[in-house]
Amino acid sequence: MAKKSSEAPPCYVIRDGDRLVGEMEMDRDLIRQFPAGQRIRVELRTARVPSRLRFWWAFLHEVVSATECCPTAEALHETVKLMCGYTTPVLVKGMTVMVPRSIAFSSMTEEEFTKFLADGLRFIADNYGVTPEQAGVAA
């Protein structure tokens, strides 16, 4: 049974000088729930760039379609993580098995994702001969 998260939904802000302004109306609505002048605790960190994540998945789908190298884009994604070393060692019956890591922001910073993306694109180009330009996917 899945455990419900007790966390509040994320609130994204844009820096404007020394001020932080809600990125979307939904974010501004969350901020408005606090009385003016109230002290609010925030955790500062950069967020995953959604357009780069969309590019990655679109590219994986194009590679699978063009090469039939894997049954799905998800399988290719897992293959890239394994082959590029984005793994976690796990002990199973006395043997160490490498398990693909998550690329979720909670598991991988945006800087790590940038390196992962470069490594993945290089791996695919070297092993399957497909680049984003050839696949018609804009980075």
- Give me the number of helical elements: 5
Overall mean pLDDT stands at 88
Class computed from helices, strands and strand pairing: alpha+beta
Strand content: 5-15%
Distance between the termini: 38 Å
**Poorly predicted tracts of residues:** 1-6
Characterize the biggest β-sheet. Answer: 2 strands, antiparallel
Gyration radius from CA atoms, angstroms: 20 Å
- Helical residue percent band: 40-55%
Q: How many beta strands in the DSSP annotation? A: 4
Shape summary: extended
Spell the H/E element sequence: EEHHHEEHH
Strand order of the largest sheet: 1-2
Features:
two-stranded antiparallel ribbon; 139 residues; disordered N terminus; alpha+beta; two-stranded antiparallel sheet
Report on this model:
With 139 residues, the chain is of the alpha+beta class. It is built from 5 helices and 4 strands, in the order ββαααββαα. The strands form 2 sheets. The chain has a two-stranded antiparallel ribbon. Strands 3-4 form a two-stranded antiparallel sheet. Helix 2 (50-67) crosses helix 3 (73-83). The longest helix has 19 residues, at 110-128. The chain is extended and about 55 Å long. The model is unreliable at 1-6 (pLDDT under 50).
